[in-house]
Amino acid sequence: MSLIHALVARGSTILAEHQAGKRDFSQATQTILSKIPPNNRYLLFVNPTPIPTLIHVINSKLTYVWEQYLFHYVSEGGFTYLVMADDAAGRRMPFAFLTDLQRKFTAAPSSSSSDETPAYGLQGSFGPTISALMHTYNTAPPVDELTRAQTELNQVKDIMVQNVEQILSRGERIELLVDKTDVMAGQATAFRRGARSVRRQMWWRNSKILALSFFVGLIILWIIAAQFCGAGLNHCGSKS
């Protein structure tokens, strides 16, 4: 639980509050409210010199540390909006809660007549609003502008990392394609050399077959002629 106790007060008079835990922090809240000067008032401040000085106390926003808890408050327009939170809650989320609490209180119809309202006079009308707002911030707090900007920055960073990874992956694929192209070029060169060698071998084989065919044809012609003219072809010449 981050937010434990919240209230709206006029000076030290609590108008409405809500406590989420079982521990009573009323004494601590009263002590802190008594330390907050009434804003928009002129206070008498005694200098070391004999001449006192009038100080105009402006709206204030401060955090008090008590045990392991932090008391955050915003004092403005005569009203104090206070919330007690765990130390782990930090400062941004509690002060965002106080901003919403102040906005809801000033928008409520009962705030216009709160100058005459007694202690806890708005508990019935505004206490449930404090309770609901504390429950919202304790369960699903709205994202403040800084967190939203950080989230958007992280998203842009993730997109850039993905783009770089895709570019690097594409570069690796291009390098792999270039390697495959080099291998194919080498294979094509080897194929051309092999084809040239096969063509040369086929030419010699065809030449040998042609020469052998010519030689066999001559032998066949000689055999045919030898049947009529004799082995030395002498008989044909003598008859003529």
Automatic annotation (TrEMBL):
It is a single-pass type IV membrane protein. It comes from the Eukaryota. One of its GO terms (cellular component) is cytoplasm. Residues 7-130 form the Longin domain. Keywords: Coiled coil, Membrane, Protein transport, Transmembrane, Transmembrane helix, Transport. One of its GO terms (biological process) is protein transport. Residues 145-205 form the V-SNARE coiled-coil homology domain. It is found in: Endomembrane system. The keyword Phosphoprotein does not apply. The chain crosses the membrane at residues 209-233. PANTHER family: SNARE PROTEINS, VESICLE-ASSOCIATED MEMBRANE PROTEIN 9. Belongs to the synaptobrevin family. This is Synaptobrevin homolog YKT6.
